[in-house]
Amino acid sequence: MIDTAPQHADAEGVDAGVGLTALLVATARAIETHRPDSLAQDVYAEHFVRAAPVCADWPVRIQQVPDGDSNPLWGRFSRYFGLRTRVLDDFLLRSVRTSARQVVLLGAGLDTRAFRLDWPADCVVFEMDRAGVLAFKHQVLTDLSATPKAKRVPVPVDLRADWVTALTTAGFDPAAPSVWLAEGLLFYLPSPVETHLIDTVDGLATEGSALAFEVKLEKDLLKYRTSAIYTATREQIGIDLLHLFDKGPRPDSAGALTAKGWSASVHTPFDFTHRHGRGPLPEPNDALEGNRWVFAHKPRHALVEGLPDEAECE
User: Fold this and answer.
1) Rounded to whole angstroms, how far apart are CA atoms 285 and 247?
2) pLDDT of 36-45, one tens digit each?
3) Three-state secondary structure call for residue 49
4) Per DSSP, what are the bridge partners of residue 212?
5) How far apart are CA 6 and CA 27, in angstroms?
């Protein structure tokens, strides 16, 4: 993940800045994993939480939270991350089963999809993030003797640097279809950086490729400072998400992809809450109301009439 907050600019691991939010998501995935009605299973998530001293007292089961699901952070926000995990799992697996065999995780953080999803035998997963984050993940997974279910290629690189060279040197083939994921990444990037990243992915993705990413559409993030989710995150674990998020105007990345010939669909998280029957629903002063999940496909010219529809993003 990219850390753009000045006071954390040199943070390499998971104990500060945006790196710490990777542990927040891992905690949410651990809680989701142990729910009887779980949408996503990540048996490695709680081990990341327990391996990092900064979050040693965070819960990994909802039963460890005194107010349970009524807790805005470990209840509603955690359920949000569980839903997001499931939706993006489905998107990636559907993409590799139709054409792509290269998966690129931008700002991979503590993502364990290479280990927990059932990939085609010839699939390769590139995990791009800062060296410190990948080193922490490697140590935890090595201690667990975890074995990936696809060829896994960590690419230690700061996405503010020349990550294209790093990715292609690691074996990525721009001539072959690929599926890209930017999960919980673009919030932290200034608008020009997001635009450059999307343009770069477009240049590296050949026909038959796909891309999923998450954006926020609020024009004034600070008006949600008193929202239950942001307040609980600040007070309970000391993460001020609004301080980490870039507050400048956001680009229309979905529109830009459409202009480049991609087919893009934009959804609210609540669309998938209704679809799966679990997850957050809208509430007053809702910090999630501006979140959008974007699913884009770069069609093969001969298959324009057979583009995946919105149901394929489920």
Assistant:
1) 18
2) 999 999 999 9
3) helix
4) 181, 295
5) 25
pLDDT band at 313 (very low <50, low <70, confident <90, very high): low
Position 19 confidence tier, pLDDT thresholds 50, 70, 90:
confident
Instruction: Specify whether the CB–CB gap between 174 and 204 falls below 8 A.
Output: yes
Residue 276's SS3 state is helix
Report yes or no: 70 and 91 within 8 Å, Cβ to Cβ.
Answer: no
6-313 CATH: 3.40.50.150
Q: Whole-angstrom Cα distance, residue 32 to residue 81? A: 8
Q: What is the band of 11 on the pLDDT scale with cuts at 50, 70, 90?
A: low
| Cβ contacts of 224 within 8 Å, gap of 6 or more | 218, 230, 242, 285, 286, 287
Angle between the 78-98 and 17-33 helix axes, to the nearest 10 degrees?
90
Question: Beta 178-182 vs 263-267: how paired, if at all?
Answer: unpaired
Question: In whole angstroms, what is the distance from residue 187 CA to residue 218 CA?
Answer: 11
What pLDDT score does 2 carry? 37
Give the whole-angstrom CA distance, residue 198 versus residue 256: 9
3-state SS, residue 93: helix
Q: Which residue has the tokens 């065999």?
A: 101
> Of the candidates 113, 115, 69, which has an alpha carbon nearest to the alpha carbon of residue 95?
113
Give which of 215, 104, 214, 107 is closest to 160, Cα–Cα: 107
Token pair of 98, please? 């139709």
d(CA 59, CA 224): 25
Tokens encoding 277: 């029957």
d(CA 167, CA 165): 5
Answer whether residue 162 shows pLDDT above 60: yes
- Dist. CA 82–CA 26, nearest whole Å: 10
* Amino acid letter, residue 8: H
Confirm whether pTM is higher than 0.70: yes
> Using CA atoms in the order 151, 20, 191, 242, what is the torsion angle rounded to 10 degrees?
150
